[in-house]
Amino acid sequence: MKNPSEEQSSMQEKKGVSRRAFLRGAGLTTAGTVALSAGLLSFKLEDAKAPPAILGPGEAEVRFVVNGQARTIWVEPRTTLAEALREHLSLTGAKVVCDRGSCSACTVWVDGKPVNSCITLAVDVSGREVTTIEGLAQGDELHPVQEAFIEHDASMCGFCTPGMVMSCAALLKRNPNPGLEDVKLATSGNLCRCGTYPKVFEATLAAAKKMKK
């Protein structure tokens, strides 16, 4: 006949983990933790990398190419590319409308790709090439997209027009034979309060045909 302590121990084993198994597991866990800690402490820490240069709070130098011309300006690090172009270089073609990257009226090219200049920092384009609506034409000769916008009456109030033209011209640069859906996709981020989208599409497709001749 089992004594009361043995009977209680047997009941605990049936219910779950025994006291002996618990103590054994706790011992293994402690040993494992100590071993892991020792292993971690044995690693040699790598030398910390030098942090990137901090710009500010004073003005920073920005050297870049704008419409084919090398330019140097000094701006506060918080200055956007749109502000730098408009206020420092008097290139006011890119319009600041929403000032949050939602309407794309401020579209310019950076290294040939369209970007919203109102949410691009000027210091981030240092050493790069920027093209604005003023640099799209070749002297007195307008870009085919600009001509098509005039011929197809694709602008009304005009605030979205520079951004629309830059987006459409970028499309024809990478895809000389676009379809209607391609034009819609290329201008999907350009908002027009006047609703001249059909005319914009017509003008872009007409410009594409003209550029192939």
Please give a structural write-up.
- The protein is α+β, with helices and mostly antiparallel strands and 213 residues long.
- 42% of the residues lie in helices and 12% in strands.
- It has seven helices and five strands; from the N terminus they run H-H-E-E-H-E-E-E-H-H-H-H.
- The protein has helices at 4-15, 19-42, 81-88, 144-151, 161-174, 180-186, 197-212, and strands spanning 60-66, 69-75, 107-110, 113-116, 129-131.
- 31% of the residues are buried.
Mean pLDDT: 85
CATH level-1 class of the largest domain: Alpha Beta
| Termini gap | 108 Å
What percentage of amino acids are in beta strands?
5-15%
Enumerate the spans where pLDDT stays under 50 for 5 or more consecutive residues: none
Largest sheet, if any? 5 strands, mixed
Count of separate DSSP helical elements: 7
Structural class: alpha+beta
Report the oligomer. Answer: single chain
Q: Please provide the ordered H/E string of secondary-structure elements.
A: HHEEHEEEHHHH
Which outline best applies?
Answer: globular
Structural Rg: 33 Å
Tell me the number of structural domains. Answer: 2
CATH homologous superfamily placement of the largest domain: Beta-grasp domain
